[in-house]
Design brief:
single chain, 402 residues, mainly alpha, four-stranded mixed β-sheet, globular, binds zinc ion
Length: 402
Protein backbone atom coordinates (compact mmCIF):
# COMPACT_ATOMS: atom_id res chain seq x y z
CA UNK A 1 0.00 0.00 0.00
CA UNK A 2 2.84 2.37 0.90
CA UNK A 3 4.51 1.92 -2.46
CA UNK A 4 1.24 2.60 -4.21
CA UNK A 5 0.79 5.88 -2.34
CA UNK A 6 4.37 6.88 -3.18
CA UNK A 7 3.77 5.95 -6.82
CA UNK A 8 0.68 8.15 -6.97
CA UNK A 9 2.39 11.09 -5.27
CA UNK A 10 5.64 10.89 -7.21
CA UNK A 11 4.35 9.92 -10.66
CA UNK A 12 0.59 9.81 -11.22
CA UNK A 13 -0.27 13.14 -9.64
CA UNK A 14 2.57 15.17 -11.20
CA UNK A 15 1.73 13.65 -14.58
CA UNK A 16 -1.93 14.58 -14.28
CA UNK A 17 -1.01 18.10 -13.16
CA UNK A 18 1.29 18.52 -16.17
CA UNK A 19 -1.47 17.27 -18.48
CA UNK A 20 -3.89 19.73 -16.90
CA UNK A 21 -1.46 22.61 -17.35
CA UNK A 22 -0.85 21.62 -20.95
CA UNK A 23 -4.58 21.31 -21.76
CA UNK A 24 -5.31 24.75 -20.32
CA UNK A 25 -2.31 26.16 -22.15
CA UNK A 26 -3.50 24.69 -25.48
CA UNK A 27 -7.00 26.07 -24.99
CA UNK A 28 -5.68 29.56 -24.21
CA UNK A 29 -3.07 29.70 -26.96
CA UNK A 30 -5.29 28.33 -29.71
CA UNK A 31 -7.68 31.24 -29.12
CA UNK A 32 -4.90 33.76 -29.81
CA UNK A 33 -3.46 34.99 -33.12
CA UNK A 34 -2.18 32.05 -35.18
CA UNK A 35 1.52 31.47 -35.08
CA UNK A 36 3.70 29.74 -37.67
CA UNK A 37 0.68 27.85 -39.07
CA UNK A 38 -2.33 29.40 -40.78
CA UNK A 39 -5.50 29.83 -38.74
CA UNK A 40 -7.17 26.52 -39.67
CA UNK A 41 -4.08 24.41 -39.11
CA UNK A 42 -3.21 26.30 -35.95
CA UNK A 43 -6.57 25.39 -34.40
CA UNK A 44 -6.49 21.89 -35.85
CA UNK A 45 -3.05 21.16 -34.43
CA UNK A 46 -4.10 22.47 -31.01
CA UNK A 47 -7.10 20.12 -31.14
CA UNK A 48 -4.86 17.24 -32.10
CA UNK A 49 -2.50 18.02 -29.22
CA UNK A 50 -5.39 18.17 -26.72
CA UNK A 51 -6.87 14.87 -27.86
CA UNK A 52 -3.46 13.26 -27.52
CA UNK A 53 -3.18 14.76 -24.05
CA UNK A 54 -6.54 13.34 -23.06
CA UNK A 55 -5.41 9.93 -24.28
CA UNK A 56 -2.31 10.31 -22.17
CA UNK A 57 -4.45 11.18 -19.11
CA UNK A 58 -6.42 7.97 -19.67
CA UNK A 59 -3.13 6.08 -19.93
CA UNK A 60 -1.89 7.57 -16.68
CA UNK A 61 -5.08 6.51 -14.91
CA UNK A 62 -5.04 3.01 -16.42
CA UNK A 63 -1.41 2.69 -15.41
CA UNK A 64 -2.03 3.48 -11.76
CA UNK A 65 -5.08 1.19 -11.62
CA UNK A 66 -2.99 -1.64 -13.05
CA UNK A 67 -0.08 -1.01 -10.66
CA UNK A 68 -2.57 -0.93 -7.80
CA UNK A 69 -4.05 -4.23 -8.94
CA UNK A 70 -0.64 -5.89 -9.06
CA UNK A 71 0.64 -4.54 -5.76
CA UNK A 72 -2.51 -5.17 -3.75
CA UNK A 73 -3.62 -8.45 -5.26
CA UNK A 74 -2.12 -9.61 -8.57
CA UNK A 75 1.49 -10.31 -7.62
CA UNK A 76 0.49 -12.43 -4.67
CA UNK A 77 -2.11 -14.38 -6.66
CA UNK A 78 0.12 -14.98 -9.69
CA UNK A 79 3.05 -15.94 -7.46
CA UNK A 80 0.93 -18.62 -5.78
CA UNK A 81 -0.69 -19.83 -8.97
CA UNK A 82 2.56 -20.56 -10.80
CA UNK A 83 4.07 -23.88 -9.81
CA UNK A 84 7.17 -24.03 -12.00
CA UNK A 85 10.92 -24.22 -11.68
CA UNK A 86 12.28 -20.85 -10.45
CA UNK A 87 13.78 -19.85 -13.79
CA UNK A 88 10.67 -20.70 -15.82
CA UNK A 89 8.42 -19.15 -13.19
CA UNK A 90 10.38 -15.93 -13.44
CA UNK A 91 9.92 -15.77 -17.22
CA UNK A 92 6.17 -16.50 -17.10
CA UNK A 93 5.59 -14.14 -14.17
CA UNK A 94 7.31 -11.14 -15.74
CA UNK A 95 5.83 -11.81 -19.20
CA UNK A 96 2.38 -11.98 -17.59
CA UNK A 97 3.01 -8.58 -16.02
CA UNK A 98 4.16 -7.08 -19.33
CA UNK A 99 1.45 -8.69 -21.45
CA UNK A 100 -1.38 -7.46 -19.25
CA UNK A 101 0.02 -3.94 -19.49
CA UNK A 102 0.18 -4.12 -23.30
CA UNK A 103 -3.31 -5.63 -23.53
CA UNK A 104 -4.84 -2.95 -21.32
CA UNK A 105 -3.27 -0.21 -23.42
CA UNK A 106 -4.24 -1.82 -26.73
CA UNK A 107 -7.72 -0.27 -27.07
CA UNK A 108 -6.25 3.20 -26.50
CA UNK A 109 -3.52 2.57 -29.04
CA UNK A 110 -6.14 1.37 -31.53
CA UNK A 111 -8.25 4.45 -30.85
CA UNK A 112 -5.28 6.75 -31.34
CA UNK A 113 -4.00 5.05 -34.48
CA UNK A 114 -7.24 4.15 -36.23
CA UNK A 115 -9.59 6.92 -35.12
CA UNK A 116 -7.66 10.02 -34.03
CA UNK A 117 -4.71 9.85 -36.42
CA UNK A 118 -7.06 8.99 -39.25
CA UNK A 119 -9.28 11.95 -38.49
CA UNK A 120 -6.30 14.28 -38.62
CA UNK A 121 -5.06 12.71 -41.83
CA UNK A 122 -1.98 10.97 -40.44
CA UNK A 123 -2.80 7.29 -40.32
CA UNK A 124 -2.83 5.85 -43.80
CA UNK A 125 -3.00 2.15 -43.04
CA UNK A 126 -6.20 0.41 -42.02
CA UNK A 127 -7.20 -2.15 -39.44
CA UNK A 128 -5.17 -4.87 -41.16
CA UNK A 129 -1.90 -2.99 -40.90
CA UNK A 130 -2.61 -2.12 -37.28
CA UNK A 131 -3.36 -5.75 -36.42
CA UNK A 132 -0.19 -6.87 -38.23
CA UNK A 133 1.94 -4.33 -36.34
CA UNK A 134 0.35 -5.31 -33.04
CA UNK A 135 0.91 -8.98 -33.69
CA UNK A 136 4.59 -8.41 -34.55
CA UNK A 137 5.10 -6.26 -31.46
CA UNK A 138 3.55 -8.92 -29.24
CA UNK A 139 5.71 -11.62 -30.79
CA UNK A 140 8.81 -9.47 -30.27
CA UNK A 141 7.78 -8.89 -26.67
CA UNK A 142 7.31 -12.61 -26.09
CA UNK A 143 10.48 -13.75 -27.82
CA UNK A 144 13.00 -11.01 -27.05
CA UNK A 145 11.36 -10.24 -23.70
CA UNK A 146 11.33 -13.91 -22.77
CA UNK A 147 15.01 -14.37 -23.61
CA UNK A 148 16.02 -11.26 -21.68
CA UNK A 149 13.98 -12.13 -18.61
CA UNK A 150 15.52 -15.60 -18.70
CA UNK A 151 19.04 -14.14 -18.90
CA UNK A 152 18.52 -11.60 -16.12
CA UNK A 153 16.84 -14.19 -13.87
CA UNK A 154 19.70 -16.59 -14.40
CA UNK A 155 22.22 -13.92 -13.41
CA UNK A 156 20.23 -12.96 -10.31
CA UNK A 157 19.99 -16.58 -9.21
CA UNK A 158 23.54 -17.66 -9.91
CA UNK A 159 25.92 -14.74 -9.55
CA UNK A 160 27.09 -12.85 -6.52
CA UNK A 161 26.79 -9.05 -7.00
CA UNK A 162 24.29 -9.76 -9.73
CA UNK A 163 23.59 -6.08 -10.34
CA UNK A 164 27.09 -5.62 -11.76
CA UNK A 165 26.65 -8.44 -14.28
CA UNK A 166 23.12 -7.39 -15.11
CA UNK A 167 24.55 -3.96 -15.85
CA UNK A 168 27.14 -5.43 -18.21
CA UNK A 169 24.44 -7.42 -19.96
CA UNK A 170 22.39 -4.22 -20.26
CA UNK A 171 25.37 -2.46 -21.80
CA UNK A 172 25.84 -5.22 -24.38
CA UNK A 173 22.13 -5.10 -25.17
CA UNK A 174 21.99 -1.34 -25.68
CA UNK A 175 24.95 -1.44 -28.06
CA UNK A 176 23.71 -4.62 -29.76
CA UNK A 177 20.23 -3.23 -30.28
CA UNK A 178 21.64 -0.10 -31.87
CA UNK A 179 23.61 -2.23 -34.31
CA UNK A 180 20.82 -4.71 -35.04
CA UNK A 181 17.82 -2.36 -35.08
CA UNK A 182 18.28 -0.89 -38.58
CA UNK A 183 19.06 -4.19 -40.29
CA UNK A 184 16.94 -6.65 -38.32
CA UNK A 185 14.03 -5.07 -36.46
CA UNK A 186 13.06 -1.98 -38.46
CA UNK A 187 12.65 -4.02 -41.71
CA UNK A 188 10.00 -6.11 -39.93
CA UNK A 189 7.75 -3.06 -39.90
CA UNK A 190 8.81 -1.13 -42.99
CA UNK A 191 10.42 -1.61 -46.36
CA UNK A 192 13.78 0.05 -46.97
CA UNK A 193 14.91 0.59 -50.53
CA UNK A 194 18.15 2.25 -51.68
CA UNK A 195 17.58 5.82 -52.82
CA UNK A 196 17.00 5.88 -56.58
CA UNK A 197 17.13 9.59 -57.37
CA UNK A 198 20.68 9.77 -58.79
CA UNK A 199 21.09 13.51 -58.57
CA UNK A 200 19.96 13.61 -54.96
CA UNK A 201 22.06 10.59 -54.08
CA UNK A 202 25.16 12.27 -55.49
CA UNK A 203 24.61 15.43 -53.45
CA UNK A 204 24.01 13.36 -50.34
CA UNK A 205 27.15 11.31 -50.94
CA UNK A 206 29.15 14.50 -51.40
CA UNK A 207 27.74 15.81 -48.11
CA UNK A 208 28.60 12.58 -46.30
CA UNK A 209 32.11 12.65 -47.72
CA UNK A 210 32.68 16.17 -46.48
CA UNK A 211 31.90 15.08 -42.94
CA UNK A 212 33.71 11.73 -43.19
CA UNK A 213 30.56 9.70 -42.58
CA UNK A 214 30.85 6.04 -43.52
CA UNK A 215 27.60 4.14 -43.89
CA UNK A 216 25.81 1.27 -45.56
CA UNK A 217 24.05 3.77 -47.76
CA UNK A 218 21.00 5.96 -48.15
CA UNK A 219 17.65 4.22 -47.82
CA UNK A 220 14.10 5.34 -48.39
CA UNK A 221 11.55 4.05 -45.91
CA UNK A 222 7.94 3.49 -46.96
CA UNK A 223 6.64 5.54 -44.03
CA UNK A 224 3.67 6.72 -46.08
CA UNK A 225 1.91 3.35 -45.76
CA UNK A 226 1.42 4.06 -42.08
CA UNK A 227 1.65 7.73 -41.48
CA UNK A 228 1.77 11.02 -43.36
CA UNK A 229 4.42 12.53 -41.16
CA UNK A 230 7.95 13.36 -42.26
CA UNK A 231 11.31 12.47 -40.85
CA UNK A 232 14.90 11.51 -41.56
CA UNK A 233 17.40 9.83 -39.32
CA UNK A 234 20.60 7.90 -39.01
CA UNK A 235 20.36 4.48 -37.46
CA UNK A 236 22.99 2.06 -36.32
CA UNK A 237 26.54 2.29 -35.07
CA UNK A 238 29.93 2.00 -36.73
CA UNK A 239 29.83 0.77 -40.30
CA UNK A 240 26.26 -0.53 -39.89
CA UNK A 241 24.99 3.06 -40.03
CA UNK A 242 22.23 3.86 -42.49
CA UNK A 243 20.79 7.13 -43.65
CA UNK A 244 17.03 6.75 -43.60
CA UNK A 245 14.74 9.15 -45.43
CA UNK A 246 10.98 8.85 -45.10
CA UNK A 247 9.40 8.67 -48.54
CA UNK A 248 7.03 11.36 -47.30
CA UNK A 249 9.97 13.71 -46.84
CA UNK A 250 11.15 13.37 -50.44
CA UNK A 251 7.87 14.69 -51.81
CA UNK A 252 7.54 17.64 -49.50
CA UNK A 253 10.96 19.23 -49.08
CA UNK A 254 13.14 20.70 -51.84
CA UNK A 255 16.61 19.32 -52.29
CA UNK A 256 18.48 22.08 -50.44
CA UNK A 257 16.15 21.63 -47.47
CA UNK A 258 16.65 17.90 -47.53
CA UNK A 259 20.42 18.34 -47.48
CA UNK A 260 20.05 20.79 -44.59
CA UNK A 261 17.99 18.27 -42.62
CA UNK A 262 20.62 15.62 -43.32
CA UNK A 263 23.28 18.14 -42.33
CA UNK A 264 21.51 18.48 -39.00
CA UNK A 265 21.58 14.71 -38.57
CA UNK A 266 25.26 14.68 -39.51
CA UNK A 267 25.78 17.21 -36.71
CA UNK A 268 24.53 14.57 -34.27
CA UNK A 269 26.99 12.14 -35.78
CA UNK A 270 29.89 14.61 -35.67
CA UNK A 271 29.18 15.54 -32.05
CA UNK A 272 28.84 11.88 -31.08
CA UNK A 273 25.42 12.60 -29.60
CA UNK A 274 24.26 9.00 -29.88
CA UNK A 275 27.09 7.91 -27.58
CA UNK A 276 26.30 10.65 -25.08
CA UNK A 277 22.69 9.49 -25.01
CA UNK A 278 23.73 5.87 -24.60
CA UNK A 279 25.94 6.85 -21.65
CA UNK A 280 23.00 8.62 -20.03
CA UNK A 281 20.77 5.61 -20.63
CA UNK A 282 23.36 3.33 -19.05
CA UNK A 283 23.70 5.66 -16.08
CA UNK A 284 19.94 5.49 -15.62
CA UNK A 285 19.98 1.71 -15.83
CA UNK A 286 22.96 1.45 -13.45
CA UNK A 287 21.40 3.64 -10.75
CA UNK A 288 18.11 1.78 -11.09
CA UNK A 289 19.77 -1.64 -10.78
CA UNK A 290 21.79 -0.58 -7.77
CA UNK A 291 18.64 0.80 -6.15
CA UNK A 292 16.64 -2.38 -6.81
CA UNK A 293 19.40 -4.61 -5.46
CA UNK A 294 19.29 -2.69 -2.17
CA UNK A 295 15.56 -2.41 -1.61
CA UNK A 296 14.44 -3.61 1.83
CA UNK A 297 12.76 -6.99 1.94
CA UNK A 298 9.68 -5.47 3.58
CA UNK A 299 8.87 -3.67 0.32
CA UNK A 300 8.52 -6.97 -1.53
CA UNK A 301 6.63 -8.53 1.34
CA UNK A 302 4.15 -5.63 1.16
CA UNK A 303 3.27 -6.77 -2.37
CA UNK A 304 2.97 -10.43 -1.34
CA UNK A 305 6.35 -11.42 -2.76
CA UNK A 306 9.63 -12.61 -1.35
CA UNK A 307 12.92 -11.52 -2.89
CA UNK A 308 13.24 -13.58 -6.07
CA UNK A 309 14.32 -12.94 -9.66
CA UNK A 310 10.78 -12.19 -10.84
CA UNK A 311 10.07 -9.90 -7.87
CA UNK A 312 13.27 -7.95 -8.53
CA UNK A 313 12.54 -7.64 -12.26
CA UNK A 314 8.92 -6.46 -11.90
CA UNK A 315 9.99 -3.95 -9.25
CA UNK A 316 12.68 -2.73 -11.61
CA UNK A 317 10.02 -2.28 -14.30
CA UNK A 318 7.61 -0.52 -11.96
CA UNK A 319 10.17 1.84 -10.45
CA UNK A 320 11.70 2.71 -13.82
CA UNK A 321 8.53 4.72 -14.58
CA UNK A 322 8.77 7.32 -11.78
CA UNK A 323 12.56 7.36 -11.90
CA UNK A 324 12.50 7.72 -15.68
CA UNK A 325 9.93 10.50 -15.47
CA UNK A 326 12.38 12.73 -13.57
CA UNK A 327 15.46 11.44 -15.34
CA UNK A 328 13.92 12.70 -18.58
CA UNK A 329 14.49 16.26 -17.32
CA UNK A 330 18.22 15.64 -17.70
CA UNK A 331 17.87 13.70 -20.96
CA UNK A 332 15.67 16.38 -22.53
CA UNK A 333 17.91 19.23 -21.39
CA UNK A 334 20.92 17.53 -22.97
CA UNK A 335 18.93 16.59 -26.05
CA UNK A 336 17.67 20.15 -26.65
CA UNK A 337 21.21 21.40 -26.29
CA UNK A 338 22.38 18.78 -28.83
CA UNK A 339 19.59 19.72 -31.24
CA UNK A 340 20.64 23.38 -31.34
CA UNK A 341 24.24 22.37 -31.93
CA UNK A 342 23.18 19.97 -34.69
CA UNK A 343 21.16 22.80 -36.27
CA UNK A 344 24.24 24.99 -36.21
CA UNK A 345 26.28 22.26 -37.86
CA UNK A 346 23.61 21.52 -40.48
CA UNK A 347 23.36 25.21 -41.30
CA UNK A 348 27.14 25.47 -41.68
CA UNK A 349 27.07 22.70 -44.30
CA UNK A 350 24.19 24.24 -46.24
CA UNK A 351 22.62 27.50 -45.13
CA UNK A 352 20.65 28.80 -42.17
CA UNK A 353 17.77 29.71 -44.44
CA UNK A 354 17.48 26.23 -46.05
CA UNK A 355 17.41 24.51 -42.68
CA UNK A 356 14.96 27.00 -41.19
CA UNK A 357 12.59 26.58 -44.12
CA UNK A 358 12.82 22.79 -43.96
CA UNK A 359 12.10 22.83 -40.21
CA UNK A 360 9.10 25.01 -40.90
CA UNK A 361 7.76 22.47 -43.42
CA UNK A 362 8.33 19.64 -40.93
CA UNK A 363 6.30 21.39 -38.24
CA UNK A 364 3.52 22.33 -40.67
CA UNK A 365 3.21 18.92 -42.27
CA UNK A 366 3.40 17.09 -38.97
CA UNK A 367 0.59 19.21 -37.62
CA UNK A 368 2.51 19.81 -34.42
CA UNK A 369 1.28 22.71 -32.35
CA UNK A 370 4.23 25.11 -32.20
CA UNK A 371 3.87 25.96 -28.50
CA UNK A 372 3.70 24.05 -25.22
CA UNK A 373 3.56 24.86 -21.55
CA UNK A 374 7.17 25.56 -20.42
CA UNK A 375 7.12 23.05 -17.57
CA UNK A 376 5.46 20.41 -19.76
CA UNK A 377 8.17 20.95 -22.34
CA UNK A 378 10.96 20.21 -19.85
CA UNK A 379 9.44 16.84 -19.09
CA UNK A 380 8.35 15.73 -22.54
CA UNK A 381 10.16 17.65 -25.30
CA UNK A 382 13.44 16.33 -26.63
CA UNK A 383 13.57 19.11 -29.22
CA UNK A 384 13.45 22.86 -28.58
CA UNK A 385 10.31 24.58 -29.86
CA UNK A 386 10.55 25.71 -33.48
CA UNK A 387 10.73 29.41 -32.61
CA UNK A 388 13.80 28.86 -30.43
CA UNK A 389 15.46 27.02 -33.30
CA UNK A 390 14.51 29.69 -35.83
CA UNK A 391 15.94 32.41 -33.59
CA UNK A 392 19.17 30.43 -33.19
CA UNK A 393 19.34 30.18 -37.00
CA UNK A 394 18.83 33.95 -37.35
CA UNK A 395 15.57 33.25 -39.16
CA UNK A 396 13.07 34.52 -36.59
CA UNK A 397 11.25 36.41 -39.36
CA UNK A 398 10.02 33.10 -40.81
CA UNK A 399 8.08 32.27 -37.67
CA UNK A 400 6.29 35.44 -36.66
CA UNK A 401 2.58 35.45 -35.93
CA UNK A 402 0.67 35.85 -39.14
ZN1 LIG B 1 18.16 16.27 -34.20
Amino acid sequence: MNILICYVLVLTLPRLILSGLQLRFLAQESAKTPYILDKDNFIKSAQYASIKEKISITETLLDVILIGFWLLYGFHALNNALVLSPLLKSVVFVLGFLLLQSLVNLPLLAYETLVVNKRFGFAKGGVGLFMGDTFKSFMLLLIIGGILIFAFSWIIMNVLNWELYAFILGMVLIVGLNVLYPTLIAPMFNKFTPLENVELKESIDALLMRVGFKSEGVFVMDASKRDGRLNAYFAGLGKAKRVILFDTLLDKIPQDGLLAVLGHELGHFKHRDIYKMMMLLLMFFGILLFGIAHLPQSLFAGAGLEISPHALIVFLLILSAPFGFYFMLIVNALSCHNELNADKFGASLTSEESLAKALLVLVKENNSFPLAHPLYMRFFYSHPPLMVRLIALNCAHLGTRN
